[in-house]
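Predict the 3D structure for this chain.
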Amino acid sequence: MAEASDVEGIFRQNLLDAGCGSDTITQCVALARANEQAKLLCVLACHRRELLDTVHENEKHIDCLDYLVYQIEKQKQF
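Done. Predicted structure below.
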């Protein structure tokens, strides 16, 4: 855990908690150090989009599973 005064450590931990990989973390830290806020926000938006795509894909899987369960319960057999 980063100290409260360790801004970069807190930043790294937040990126890790957000599911960023080591390459993304390294890229974000470099952009933050270079004060490239627009590029940093673009990288973060891209990661967010990837996470959301995963959520949507899993929602589709859940919907398919729910439909299968519904069909099995409706017929009480295959």
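Helices lie at 7-17, 22-33, 37-75.
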